[in-house]
Amino acid sequence: MKRTGFAYFFALIGGLFGFHHLYLGRTQHALLWFTTFGGFGIGIIYELLFSIRNYVREANNDKLIIDEYEKIMREQKSPAFELKRFCGQYITALFYGFITYYAFPDTWLHKTFPSLIVGVCCALAIALGTQLVGTLGPRQCSFIWPLLGALLGLPFLVGNGDGSPSFNIVAFFSCCIFEWKIDWDPEYFPTKTESQVTTSKKKQRQRRHIIKRCIILGFGACVFGLILTSAVYQNLQVDINGERVKVKDVIADFFKSQEFIILYQQLSSVVKQLYAFYLQYGFKGIWTQIWTALDFESDKQAFEVLNLDSDASQKQIEAQCRTLSRKWHPDRYRDLEAKQKAEATFMNIQQACNRLSNERKRRQDINTQKRENPN
């Protein structure tokens, strides 16, 4: 049983990414919302105002909702044309085609075969956008038809020379052919009407498990993220000394620069040395070496605070600690600013003294254990 309060909660915290649809078992709608940022912001606002309660009732297989859909299915041979849905299909198809087109290197767009690959990929993306929006709810249509419409507009994607591709024409073709072939999905609701009882071969629609829904959404989000990232990388520009330069060219120049080559050689040398050390001493040896280096740096800072050489004896350390503690004790200062400075210095001195005292004691204990247990 899905709860309206939970649906609104997920819509408020993650509506732009379709979390409420994921909760309600509407995986396709969740993926659509994730890849269009909540229906370009307008869709999620509309849902919060008008649609979420109906989505919850639908997820719970509410009898009134099912009866209403069954009545419409009986009265209409196929779903009626919806201007709102058609606009959503058209805009989503445009967006998918746009980011797919610009995700490819611009050098591909001026070559015959690579530009054909780009055009086909854009047609697939446009058809997918049309299909995702068009088949929300108890509606079905084979993906072949919106894809056919997009492929009919392929010349407008690859035949424009140096001009921009006409995504709008391709998206319009795809949406029109989809609307021509759209039909009802009788298996959308797990109902037990007479037709379903007599037709035992029909499988009732079951909502996917939450883990499976998350995997589907995650995979779709990863693919979308890769395409969007590539589109940004291929086309984002920055201003350098008054000249617009693409970020990918800046990055390419950096990888070719002498500074990067030197850095790469240094990192390679460090990795090789680290690997050789690992082969000889293992992970335990590496960790011991890191811990020893950190201890050395801490000891070095402590000696600097006390103004002592690193080879100072324990008596010298103790004498310097007493001297500096008396000198910087806050009670000796009455001026507020001087007192605050003395407090900070006094605390550093105490920490340094404790550090060296504890470290010497620890090393003495280790040496004692080694003498008592030489094996």
TrEMBL record:
Residues 339-369 form a coiled coil. CDD domains: DnaJ. Residues 301-370 form the J domain. InterPro entries: DnaJ_domain (IPR001623), J_dom_sf (IPR036869), TM2 (IPR007829). It holds the Pfam family TM2. It is a multi-pass membrane protein. Keywords: Coiled coil, Membrane, Transmembrane, Transmembrane helix. The chain crosses the membrane at residues 7-24, 30-49, 86-104, 116-136, 210-233. It is found in: Membrane. One of its GO terms (cellular component) is membrane. May function as a co-chaperone. This is DnaJ homolog subfamily C member 22. It comes from Rotaria socialis.
